[in-house]
Amino acid sequence: MYKQWFGNWKRRLVQLVSLGIIGEWSFYGIFRCPFAVPYIGCGNCPVIQCPGRNLWMWGWILMGLSAVLFGRVFCGWICPGGLVSEILSMGAFFKNKINRIASNLFSVGKYIVLALSLYLFFVANNPRWAIPIRTGEFFKSVGLTFEHADPIWIYKTMAILIALGLSIFIPMFWCRFFCPTGGALELLSRFSLFRFITNEKCTSCDRCLKMCAMETRPSESNCVQCGDCLDTCKLDAVEWRSRIRST
Amino acid sequence: MEKNGLSRRRFLKTGGLALGAGLAAASPGFSQTYAQESLQVWSCGGLAEAFQPANHEFEKLTKASIAYTGAFAGALGKSLLTGSARTEVFGPRVLELAKKLKAQGKMLWFKPLCFTQYVVATPKGNPAGIESIKDMGKSGVKTILAPEASPPGGKASMIILKKAGVEDKARANAVFVGDCVQTAVTDLVTGKADAAVIEKRIIHLPQFRGKLDTLPIPEAFIPPAPVPFTIGVMKWAKNRALAEAFVDFILSDKGQVWFHRAGFIPAQTEEGQRLTRKYGVMDV
Ligand code: SF4
Ligand code: SF4
Ligand code: SF4
């Protein structure tokens, strides 16, 4: 576990720095964002304390760009939600117990949530489901938000918290099966120019899969380009490949 | 259209601050320091853009720290009236709310703070040539409405349109009907719509500043309830002197100028005093 956590220390460092920069935005998005879909309509948001008002445009541009260049690198290196999922997954009860077929089946969940989010944002004009606590101490404001939110906001927030919390049982439950951002980045990552892949030396021994927090293999779905599996393969079958060079 | 960022000196001149003597009497309080002391202040969220810089200035002057929450006054009021919520100073919209809190003994006293204004907003340059609120009912005019927005953005605007006799036509002309005034106003800025009835404070928000023109709405069309804001000291104020010094500061020229800049009519101006009398904003 120690090796997995600190072996790739550069990734941990980047995650911590990003937690400092966008972590607060994540918490606001979950607990205080009054809109059905957080993080998107921030330019007009009445919650003046949320850092999203300054970060959102560049955040999304850079995220999209990163996916086209490096696949789901945002998930593996930057996302505070991913870091929280990893922490919760550390002692997960059902590590490597969900078979590939079930895992692939549940993975569809994140596309369903993505489709729902896109519908709510583009078709339903991103309705407001909670009273915006425009400014105020974080925890007191969270309390007020819960007190005055529509029931549907409470259900949505509970669904997010439960999906995040389920990582205690099934590793990275939220990121693998539920996160709409992960779903969008997964789709874009199909076109990524650089990524980890398994090469022809791979014998499918699944050593990489057993140590992978996302329970996948390089170049397969849900790989977040973390690079943690790079040194696990004794056959040097995991490599960082540029599509430009290889085509 | 009125220029944004009017200087304080000009505000004092044009606003005709009538309570000079009262303010002078309140002034010594500001020089007193309250280091290490904190004060919890809640207000209607519409006032957040004014309260934030005003609070900051009070903190600089007195070394006290202000823990400020701004949100829909109806929700905050409900928490205070029926829940276990507590705050030391409260600046609600709607006079009735202040009166109810006073009647329950939760608010010790209150004073008029400021008044909101409703306007017809158009994109910069008014490309559709809107001349008055009546034009929102003309065919071909694209309107935006946010009837589901938390009061007063939603319901009050609809009442104004109704009193102007154009509600149905303005609804039929709507290119956007939503639940968030700020989202709706974006369509105005981008020119997707021609006109909307909004609070003047909205055009002072950083994202819309300088991007909209406004036309006045006859006062007879404006419902009284959402117009006045008050500020009062609550029974939970731990340090009454600090809470009172804060209210004095907010009602002084230094405090009130922020409310003017955010698009409100400060209570301490001649116009504010006229509205105080008109709406009967009295603590009884
Ligand atoms: S800025 Fe507003 S819309 Fe964006 S995440 Fe924060 S609370 Fe939500
Ligand atoms: S899947 Fe979602 S929560 Fe997980 S790392 Fe990616 S963006 Fe973050
Ligand atoms: S397969 Fe390797 S690079 Fe991809 S997520 Fe798993 S450990 Fe990280």
UniProtKB/TrEMBL annotation, chain A:
Keywords: 4Fe-4S, Electron transport, Iron, Iron-sulfur, Membrane, Metal-binding, Transmembrane, Transmembrane helix, Transport. It comes from the Bacteria. InterPro entries: 4Fe4S_Fe-S-bd, Electron_Trans/Redox. Residues 214-243 form the 4Fe-4S ferredoxin-type domain. The chain crosses the membrane at residues 12-31, 57-80, 101-122, 152-174. Pfam families: Fer4_5. GO terms for molecular function: 4 iron, 4 sulfur cluster binding; metal ion binding. One of its GO terms (cellular component) is plasma membrane. This is 4Fe-4S binding protein. Coiled coil: none annotated.
TrEMBL record, chain B:
Keywords: Iron, Iron-sulfur, Metal-binding, Signal. Residues 1-26 form the signal peptide. It holds the Pfam family SBP_bac_11. PROSITE patterns: TAT (PS51318). GO terms for molecular function: iron-sulfur cluster binding; molybdate ion binding. GO terms for biological process: molybdate ion transport. PANTHER family: MOLYBDATE-BINDING PERIPLASMIC PROTEIN, SULFATE-BINDING PROTEIN. This is ABC transporter substrate-binding protein.
